[in-house]
Q: What sequence folds into this?
């Protein structure tokens, strides 16, 4: 082995480190554990990894971290911000692992405390919310790593890391980061409800295949999201009018308390045994929505609840409950945030997967799209070209001969274009 760090030696060293980490991560993950790998912020020399994605993309990695070392003559804020940017940029490209930053608090004097606090603020501005420090009590009990001001440093760094500044005191950029970090947790919460979601979709598709309808019911934000999803199914998949509908509590926020209206709206639709009713409510206790699902159950419909709370009232009525537990909102009680995002993802999955199960797509193409404007007509034309493998001229001729006939608008069992 050459004594100097040649390109070949560097490549061998990095490959050996990555292979070792791969074995360690697999060993821990196989036993149900979580893994965090913390890299030095350098990308060269004998300690650096030139491509952090080699590590960030390893199977079994839960959290990717880095720890900037303070260096003489370099601003601690600048060092932490640079490390934060690296931590965000290098491993964030689709790896799905969480990000973490460790800030050294040892060897500092009272004059350097403001710079350490600024480094924590700067790291958060770069989007890193999972911040830690290493050096218990600022290494006050460790010989050369200690300073006379270690107790002050420890008090300051503890306050800076554990304190949660009021939203109103944060910069706009910090607020964007806070919201983004919280939103990033929603997808995982939906994934944890994946089994229940899949079972509900199978049952819903079965009802529609037998000639039934998908009926959404909700109030407030939940109702508006349900109405949006129902409105988009027709243009996207060629769903016949009335196949997917939404009933929403009336105007005004007090409309969600109108249980009688929820019962009446479902009865007005003559919901029956062939139908599937999906009740959407973040709390799972909205009177309008609960009454609607109870009326659907009395009519013999398949009953599904989409909620963001455990042990909800809706769950006691439904046959299938999709409970997406997103945790506290950034603005307390504002369920239009994480809960609303979760509901949108779940409704997307319900309508899209149901339409796929019903044959409204072909090889991932929207072959059931309703050609009701220029954009959709061109999309339909392109879909036929891709699906058939024929030339554009042949497709244009066939579509002209068929006068743009779209079978799914007249037949639920035949959603594809008929050229």
A:
């Amino acid at each position: 082995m050459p004594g100097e760090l040649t390109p070949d030696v560097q490549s061998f060293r990095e490959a050996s480190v990555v292979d070792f980490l791969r074995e360690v991560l697999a060993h821990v993950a196989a036993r149900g554990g979580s893994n965090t790998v913390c890299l030095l912020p350098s990308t060269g020399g004998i300690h650096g990894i030139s491509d952090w994605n080699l590590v960030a993309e390893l199977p079994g990695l839960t959290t990717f971290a880095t720890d900037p070392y303070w260096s003489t003559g370099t601003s601690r804020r600048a060092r932490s911000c640079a490390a934060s940017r690296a931590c965000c940029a290098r491993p964030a490209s689709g790896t799905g692992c969480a990000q973490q930053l460790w800030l050294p608090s040892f060897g500092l004097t009272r004059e350097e405390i403001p710079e350490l606090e600024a480094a924590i603020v700067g790291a958060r501005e770069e989007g890193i919310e999972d911040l830690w420090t290493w050096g218990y009590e600022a290494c006050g009990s460790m010989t050369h790593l200690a300073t006379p001001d270690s107790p002050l440093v420890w008090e300051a760094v503890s306050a800076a890391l554990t304190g949660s500044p009021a939203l109103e005191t944060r910069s706009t950029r910090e607020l964007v980061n806070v919201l983004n970090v919280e939103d990033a947790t929603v997808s995982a919460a939906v994934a944890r409800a994946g089994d229940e979601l899949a079972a509900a979709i199978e049952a819903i598709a079965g009802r529609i295949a037998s000639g039934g309808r998908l009926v959404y019911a909700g109030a407030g934000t939940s109702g508006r999201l349900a109405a949006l999803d129902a409105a988009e199914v027709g243009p996207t998949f060629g769903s016949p009018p009335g196949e997917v509908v939404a009933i929403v509590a009336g105007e005004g926020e007090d409309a969600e308390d109108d249980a009688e209206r929820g019962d009446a709206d479902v009865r007005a639709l003559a919901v029956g045994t062939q139908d599937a009713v999906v009740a959407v409510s973040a709390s799972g206790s909205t009177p309008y929505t609960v009454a609607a699902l109870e009326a659907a159950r009395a009519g013999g419909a398949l009953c599904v609840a989409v909620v963001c709370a455990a042990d909800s009232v809706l769950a006691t009525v439904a046959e299938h409950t999709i409970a997406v537990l997103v945790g506290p909102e950034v603005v307390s009680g504002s369920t239009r945030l994480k809960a609303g995002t979760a509901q949108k993802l779940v409704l997307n999955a319900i309508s899209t997967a149901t339409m796929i199960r019903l044959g409204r797509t072909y090889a991932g193409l929207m072959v059931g799209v309703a050609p009701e404007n220029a954009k959709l007509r061109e999309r339909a034309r392109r879909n036929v070209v891709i699906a058939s493998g024929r030339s554009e001229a042949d497709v244009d001729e066939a579509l002209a001969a068929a006068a743009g006939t779209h079978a799914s608008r007249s037949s639920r069992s035949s959603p594809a274009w008929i050229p």
The chain has a mean pLDDT of 85. The two ends are 68 Å apart (CA to CA). The first helix runs from residue 7 to 29. Residues 7-184 form a domain with the TIM Barrel fold (CATH 3.20.20).
